[in-house]
Amino acid sequence: xxxxxxxxxxxxxxxxxxxxxxxxxxxxxxxxxxxxxxxxxxxxxxxxxxxxxxxxxxxxxxxxxxxxxxxxxxxxxxxxxxxxxxxxxxxxxxxxxxxxxxxxxxxxxxxxxxxxxxxxxxxxxxxxxxxxxxxxxxxxxxxxxxxxxxxxxxxxxxxxxxxxxxxxxxxxxxxxxxxxxxxx
Length: 184
Known about the structure:
9 helices; 3 strands; 52% helix
């Protein structure tokens, strides 16, 4: 089945709804999910000690694949995490950046889903944020091996689901070969 991901318009609609409803924490979580491709469990277990502003990485020590990974922060993720960590910092302690449960996010997600008319689509769940990250990386020419590493997929076969989103890469490969051809 085809990969379901958020269009730019859908992302903007969800962003606007969370902002309009005053759900700043859910809005922050949504942006972090879309820009990092984190799983919800990774987001909710992330502590301030996972965030390294020097290297601009979120280090996830405990992932589904069992292997730790680092995810680079976009400018907006960095800004969100700086604010959240600085606002809740208690010296000498490790604090969860999003000290909530899955239900905290899912209940507002379901509300937005209803407004967007997507209640009949089971694939329109919070996990769509992760698929959106993967889809955007592939569509913008990021190599599948890099996407695999970014998302922490154990095997390249899982990442290959997104390969069909980059059909122009075959043409790019052909262009590389054509550069070497010299007509005599």
